[in-house]
Hints:
By secondary structure, the protein is α/β, with parallel strands linked by helices. The protein has a single domain (64-347), classed as TIM Barrel (Alpha-Beta Barrel). It contains 13 helices and ten strands. The chain is globular, with a radius of gyration of 26 Å. Mean pLDDT is 79; it is low at 15-93. Zinc ion binds at residues 152-153, 203, 207, 246.
Amino acid sequence: MRSALGVMLASAVSVFVIVAVWFWTYSPRAVLAAPDSVSARLAERLPAAASAKSTRALADEVEVTGTIAARPSTVAPSTVASSTVRPSAALASPALAAAAAALQMKAACANADALGVSRVVEIDTTGGPGFGFEHFKQLDFLADKEVVLTFDDGPWPSNTPAVLKALADECTKAVFFPIGKHATYHPEILRQVAAAGHTVGAHTWSHANLNSKKMTEQQAKDEVEKGFSAVKLALGAAPSPFFRFPQLQHGPAAMAYLGSRNIAVFSCDLDSFDFRAKDAAQIVNTVMTKLDKQGKGIILMHDFQKHTAEALPTLLGRLKAGGYKVVQMRAKAPLQTLAEYDEGLVKDMKLPTVSTRALSNVVQTVAQ
Ligand SMILES: [Zn+2]
């Protein structure tokens, strides 16, 4: 009896020891395994960490990567480009403040191998300067291999957040030209754009062609001002005085008006034609082919377009591999929107009811 009890006790102890050893050996791996996307991102980053350029602890990367992966996105992790060569970080800005800003962004970046921002330029928009060699050839501020990323027609669900994620993964910045109406539909998405540190201008109220023969000067002015006021209403802060004409149709009267309002006009150096691309690969090919030929430029894309959102991780990887550097454009001062348009828009947005009674006076729970 006593020996039988001994055998039972020994068996119980053995089982406990086996379970304890198993738990101690495998349990921590189960914690690290987690989602596939996290593992994939870590695998890509190993060479950077091994090259001793990064002093960041692995735990930091896991934590940050996990946070990014948890955000909703339509872009598959497998489409994130895995560049092997990182261009040397050149913070060759003439302005000390800009260099400091770029350094600050680099310090805040969780991706040691990111494309990043090489230079931040501040634009004095007095008199309405024009940018983009397709139409304006006076201000040649980009050096060879420098690009400016610009996105039109947002904000839009899924596509704009996917563009933001791709830019965040590469710690880089862009200029957005939202449509006023879209800003009123999805103000929370536009606020995400601004919160991520991107520059936000405007792209008219309704995407009307301001160079159309049917367009009066007053209507063109309304499109411009209402567009900016809508962006301001969505952001809760004044946008940058940066404007892009729909379809790059520069009406002379509207150009003169923008100049009088000290609003910079953006054309582009390089049109991605992403709105008519059949897939993401075509956008990447179009941009890289033109860029390799021209050597630099302001790139026109649309965060409104699904294929653009899908193409961006690969495109940013190709830019990095090709030794291109991203320049961020910022305005020296925000736009002073016109009060009549701010107020008119708020009035338009209100539902057709004039009741100002308190909720408890209108709705009473009478049965529960
Ligand atoms: Zn547009």
